[in-house]
Design goal:
The chain is of the alpha/beta class and 212 residues long. It has eight helices and five strands; from the N terminus they run H-E-H-H-E-H-E-H-H-E-H-E-H. It has a five-stranded parallel sheet, sandwiched between helices. Helix 7 links the parallel strand 4 and strand 5. The termini are far apart. The N terminus is likely disordered.
Length: 212
């Protein structure tokens, strides 16, 4: 009887859904309206589309939407601890997509950089992997502002030794066919391109060792 019970127990464990399977990677998409999905239906927002792309690539992941429309880097810094949640259950990766609203407001790039630096420092202290998504300043702000603003993202990625995606809106910005009527927020076709281009960077970031 004991032998039969043990055999049944072993078979049950072998075919249990949790047996030999790792928990899905938890990814926090931390950004502004571009992350949150301004003007889009639920299935078309960036975090949902990214999770589907990762699943199609054979990676089990849960992508949490921590985007807030209108958010700046200062707002992101202020809500970072709340977005991360329980310190005992930190995400496996945080995608930082912030800065566009700073540029739209003409915020001094030094201030934006200081906020992003503080966010990255806090995440690094907690040992959280990061993929920093770069942004570009609108051309109407002038070349000097653009140089200062655009240059902060690769500089911060190098300083904090985090994964870097040069431009979140790569292939989508300024294309009327890929944006909503406001010309700033991607439509579903635009989100599809963003996800297609950033997914390999997300996969590589997940595979990197945790920061020291």
């Amino acid at each position: 009887m004991v032998l039969v019970f043990n055999l049944a127990l072993l078979i049950g464990l072998a075919f249990s859904p949790a047996a030999g399977s790792a928990a899905p990677a938890r990814i926090l998409a931390f950004g502004d309206s571009l992350t949150h999905g301004y003007g889009l239906d639920g299935p078309d927002v960036f975090p949902v589309r990214l999770q589907k792309a990762l699943t199609a690539a054979g990676i089990e992941a849960e992508v949490q939407n921590a985007g807030v429309s209108g958010d700046t880097t200062a707002g992101g810094l202020a809500r970072l601890d709340w977005a991360l949640g329980d310190p005992a259950g930190l995400p496996d990766l945080v995608i930082i997509e912030l800065g566009a609203n700073d540029a739209l407001r003409g915020t001094d790039p030094a201030e934006t950089e200081a906020n992003l630096d503080a966010i990255l420092t806090r995440l690094g202290t907690r040992g959280v992997k990061v993929l920093l998504a770069g942004m570009r300043a609108p051309p109407n702000l002038g070349s000097e502002y653009g140089t200062r603003f655009d240059g902060m993202f690769p500089r911060l990625a190098e300083k904090h030794r985090v994964a870097f995606y040069p431009f979140f809106l790569d292939g989508v910005a300024a294309d009327p066919a890929l944006n909503q009527a406001d010309g700033m927020h991607p439509n579903p076709a635009g989100v599809a391109i963003i996800v297609e281009r950033i997914t390999p960077f997300v996969i590589r970031a997940l595979e990197q060792r945790n920061p020291a």
